[in-house]
Design goal:
This protein has 254 residues and is of the alpha/beta class. The protein has helices at residues 18-31, 42-48, 81-94, 112-121, 139-149, 167-177, 194-201, 242-253, and strands spanning 5-8, 35-39, 51-54, 98-101, 126-129, 153-156, 182-186, 205-207, 211-215, 236-240. The longest helix has 14 residues, at 18-31.
Length: 254
């Protein structure tokens, strides 16, 4: 079996920490024996094939720069059925192993038609329903619909802000699924609670960020001003660290 492949792109507008996030994806993927591709200019680059394989040196000396070194671009074509198919074909060409998406109707039910089309486009790749599931009006029926469509897994917090708060529903859904689909617990999963979530639900797959604050390059910070949430440490950036990844996995496996 060949090495798994992942691709990373940045879409929408620039935001603080994007280069750090890309660097973490690339270096973590390589350390796990994966081939990592960078897609330039967002979804537009995915459609046009503006892709290159990245190594450790590709992401050296980028964290102190603003924006994203992969660039971003709006892509009206990606919002068309033909554009989605073209993007999926590019992913297959690159050997990308999986894609993540999820569509709901306005009434909170699973959009069978749109999801079916996306699944058809993604044939041959692993497909995960993202946390659109957590906004579904009737989770038990939504689970059956997602299984019937043929998704491989669902990323969910049990319809609560944090997975630890949603363990009752996660456990119930896991019993209902009975091995027909994988459930992945996500949102607020840490080394402090991953074992508790596992024991309460029986789930075997988890999504977590394992981030730690690191000092920014600012030497002066105005103590009277905040640009976002009051009380947040705006003099630091949050980075995924190997230490917290290892600590979280260790707690799960103990």
């Amino acid at each position: 079996m060949g090495a798994k492949s992942i691709a990373v792109l940045t879409s929408g507008g620039d935001a603080p920490g994007m280069n750090a996030a890309v660097r973490a994806v690339v270096r973590t993927g390589i350390s796990m024996g994966m081939r990592v591709y960078g897609i330039r200019r967002g979804y537009n680059g995915l459609l046009t094939g503006d892709v290159e394989e990245m190594g450790v040196r590709s992401v050296s000396d980028i964290m102190q720069h603003g924006g994203t070194f992969l660039f971003t671009a709006r892509s009206p074509e990606f919002n068309t059925p033909e554009g989605v198919q073209k993007a999926a074909d590019q992913c297959r060409k690159l050997g990308v192993d999986g894609v993540v998406f999820g569509c709901l109707k306005a009434n909170g039910t699973i959009d069978m038609e749109r999801n079916r089309y996306l699944l058809e486009c993604s044939r041959g790749m692993s497909v995960t329903m993202h946390r659109a599931f957590d906004r579904a009006a009737a989770p038990s029926q939504a689970l059956e619909d997602v299984i019937a469509l043929g998704f491989d897994r669902i990323l969910t917090s049990g319809q609560q802000p944090k997975a630890l708060q949603g363990v009752e529903l996660l456990s119930r859904l896991n019993r209902q699924a009975a091995g027909r689909i994988s459930l992945m617990a996500g949102s607020g999963v840490t080394e402090q609670n991953i074992r508790d979530i596992h024991e309460a639900t029986g789930l075997l797959e988890f999504h977590f960020s394992a981030r730690e604050p690191q000092p920014s390059g600012m030497q002066y910070v105005n103590p009277d001003l905040y640009m976002g949430r009051p009380g947040a440490n705006e003099a630091a950036l949050e980075y995924t660290t190997a230490r917290r990844v290892a600590a979280t996995i260790t707690q799960l496996m103990r």
